[in-house]
Predict the structure.
Amino acid sequence: MDMVLIGGLWLSGSVWDGVADELASLGHRPVPVTLPGQGDGAVSATLDDQRTAVLAAVDGADGGPVVVGHSAACTLAWLAADARPDRVARTVLIGGFPSADGQPYADFFPVTDGVMPFPGWAPFEGADTADLDEQARRAIADAAIPVPEGVARGVVRLTDERRFDVPVTLVCPEFSPAQAREWIDAGELPELARAKHLDLIDLDSGHWPMVSRPVELARLLAACA
């Protein structure tokens, strides 16, 4: 099965290399997406540009693909389900949750000179980074690409209620399935609360399992397929 892989903020498609190798060995076709503004050299990309790139990968897949979003890009995976509810076989959301209609995509950190740079590791100390050694931290930070303001502050638009029919798997790395269920029941994750087919799966890792546990993550994704 084809698997469209979408990295979160500051990440290019190359962050999936280890996962992609393992998926290929398991008989799947990985399709890592290099998002506009996050690896193609563009600095004026918008959220709509990134959505268009994801949809191009979905439309170019062989059959109905699994669409995998990481962190903030869980919203991009959800936008794909909204735009292609009859084509996306499943969304897999890793360490993040889809924003609702009308919300900003990822306005989390300061914007400087039109981009949102990687803020360093201080905001992520704790469970997010507990499984990253210094070499892994350095590699992520060195490769981090400032996210264009038009992406980070773009407004999410969802239009098709059939997105709730698309099966969803929420991979819980730095938080537990029990915590995620509490957030859903409390009304904090309204899009997931309305999903008709939602599975919660634990993964003992930090926020970047494609770096810290690529083989385990790939096998989990294969099982989702």
